[in-house]
Design a protein that fits this description.
alpha+beta
């Protein structure tokens, strides 16, 4: 493929591990104008992690758009993440801006946002963790990201979903989200 008037090689590889219910298709980009054959950009194009009754799962789909300025080549990586569990169906979108300045070999994540309008910045580390199904995202972090959907379960009428949420909360530390959800589940 040609990007920024340069030849690139994109290689997809499947890193899924069914025994741990984690799937990941990684895409590595190689800039063929560079001497060494090392990836200059890597991202999960598709993946997911399912935690069943022990936590919130997630499915990841990524798409990209390339741009260029006089100072840098850039990649806007859009993640669509579906947070999953019994009765939980929440999709959220995140945007990561990667840049490679003229003096650099690889792309670096410069900024990240919840949503596409760039009004809600998030930490770069959080974006990277969300994008990688093998990251050690805790139940507490996943619950914070999926909180609107979990609130719908806690205030809804689906008994199976509430049972699942109680199970998840049993494997979660004391956080403001946990306390709020437990309070709502205790309300008749």
């Amino acid at each position: 493929m040609a990007l920024w008037n340069k030849p690139f090689l994109a290689v997809s590889s499947d890193h899924s591990q069914n025994g741990v219910t984690t799937q990941q298709v990684l895409e590595d980009w190689f800039d063929l104008t560079q001497r060494d054959f090392e990836p200059v950009f890597r991202f999960t194009s598709n993946g997911g992690q399912w935690r069943f009754g022990f936590g919130v799962g997630r499915t990841i789909h990524a798409r990209y758009e390339v741009n260029q300025t006089a100072q840098a080549d850039s990649i806007e990586l859009t993640l669509t993440i579906s947070f999953d569990g019994t009765g939980l169906s929440q999709k959220s979108t995140y945007l990561g801006i990667y840049e490679r300045r003229t003096s650099e070999k690889t792309f670096k994540l410069r900024s990240a946002y919840a949503g596409l309008d760039r009004s809600s910045p998030i930490y770069a580390r959080d974006f990277e963790d969300l994008a990688d199904p093998f990251s050690a995202l805790s139940n507490e972090k996943l619950m914070a990201w999926a909180f609107p959907g979990l609130m719908r379960i806690a205030t809804g009428t689906d008994a199976d979903a509430k049972k699942w949420l109680r199970s998840v909360l049993g494997h979660t530390g004391d956080t403001p989200e946990t306390r709020r959800l437990l309070s709502l589940l205790a309300t008749p």
